[in-house]
Amino acid sequence: MARVHLSGNLKQITGGAAEFQIEASNVRGVLKALVALHPELERHLDEGIAVAIDGEIHQDAWFSEVKPDSEVYIMPAIAGG
């Protein structure tokens, strides 16, 4: 199972839980599993997130592959102007 880490305000929404073991083949599956565990995450994940898989940041990561031994980091997207 992939090791999934939440950062920023996302871990506050889960009551402080910041690390999860999730079985999924892509980022979409990871996000669905997180929402199943913590439904209140859904709107925050929809607002925009950044995803890094095994140290590489992915743009439009919805279908990016997640391997059983992957490290996935999910953080709120940073906006600037």
Characteristics:
5 strands, Ubiquitin-like (UB roll), globular, alpha+beta, single chain, 81 residues
Strand content: 25-35%
Report the count of strand segments: 5
Total helical elements: 3
Overall residue-averaged pLDDT value: 93
CATH homologous superfamily descriptor: Beta-grasp domain
The third-level CATH topology is: Ubiquitin-like (UB roll)
Structural class designation: alpha+beta
* Helical content band: 25-40%
Q: What can be said about the biggest beta sheet?
A: 5 strands, mixed
Question: Can you put this structure into words, describing what you see?
Answer:
- The chain is an alpha+beta fold and 81 residues long.
- It has one domain: Beta-grasp domain (Ubiquitin-like (UB roll)), CATH 3.10.20.30.
- Helix content is 26%, strand content 28%.
- It contains three helices and five strands, in the order βαβααβββ.
- It has helices at residues 9-13, 27-37, 42-46; strands spanning 2-6, 19-22, 49-53, 56-58, 71-76.
- A five-stranded mixed beta sheet has the order 2-1-5-3-4.
- The mean pLDDT is 93.
